Amino acid sequence: MTWLGLIVWFTIPCALAARSSEEATSTKTDGGASAAATGARATASSKPPASDKPAEVEISGTLKISERPARLFVFVSRKPCDARLVSEDIIGSVKIDPFVSTNFFIEVFVPQGSRGNVCGAALDEKGSVIALGGHKKNPLTFRGEGEVTFGNVIIPLQRLAKPFPGPEQFRR
After folding, report:
1. What is the pLDDT of residues 140-158, one digit of tens each?
2. Where are the domains of the chain?
3. CA 67 to chain centre
4. Residue 78 carries which DSSP code?
5. What does the DSSP 8-state code read for residue 50?
6. Contact indicator for 165, 76 with CB cutoff of 8 Å
7. In angstroms, what CA-CA distances link 57 with 117, 118, 124, 150, 156?
8. What are the percentages of helix, strand and coil residues in the chain, rounded to 5?
9. Is the separation of the CB atoms in 160 and 84 below 8 Å?
10. What is the pLDDT of residues 59-92, one digit of tens each?
11. Which of these, 7, 79, 138, 158, has the minimum number of CB atoms within 10 Å of its CB?
12. Strand runs (DSSP E) across 21-89, as ranges?
């Protein structure tokens, strides 16, 4: 084999490998050509999500408590975390067994761009709220395509001076 033959023999596979690597890592733009082929920089999405599709919001984190209550709840509220909240203000809630863990996961479906507050409540054995708290970055804006996630949300619960009856869904 000549030098020219060797060069061609090594060059063609390398060129083909580089081309397939380029195609595998490029994303399609609206025009259908790959970003690598057009020289354009690819982004996940430059358009805002469709406002008619609800945002699927997943929130996970931990409640910080000083003493173990009978029950714990995490909830997403339209209004700030408050001792006088009512069921109509709650978008979604999840019950947590304080004898197992204080970690939580909650999922809600809300209109794109809506805002909500992530709150936690501790209840006594009668179903009265004895401690309440909220995420320090409240209110959160819920917007995005696919799953919108908020992780490592820490909610410190503060003991209330006087217990109050919780919303109906907390007493079940």
Report:
1. 999 988 889 999 999 999 9
2. 3-38, 55-171
3. 28
4. S
5. P
6. no
7. 12, 11, 29, 8, 21
8. 20, 40, 40
9. no
10. 999 999 999 999 999 999 999 998 777 889 999 9
11. 7
12. 55-64, 71-77
Distances (CA, A) of 106 to 42, 159, 171: 32, 23, 18
Second-level CATH architecture of 55-171: Sandwich (2.60)
At residue 49, the 3 state secondary structure works out as coil
Question: What pairs with residue 34 in β-bridges?
Answer: 28
- Annotate 109-172 with DSSP letters as a single string: EE-TTEEEEEEEEEE-TTSEEEEEEE-TTPSEEE--SSEEEEEEEEEE-EEEEEEEEPPHHHH-
Place of tokens 């000549």: 2
CA distance 53 to 33: 27
- Strands 114-123 and 147-156, by their bridges, are unpaired
Q: 36: helix, coil or strand?
A: helix
The order of strands in the sheet holding 103-110 is 103-110, 55-64, 147-156
Q: How far apart, in whole angstroms, are the C-alpha atoms of residue 160 and residue 46?
A: 46
Q: Say yes or no to pLDDT of 24 above 50.
A: no
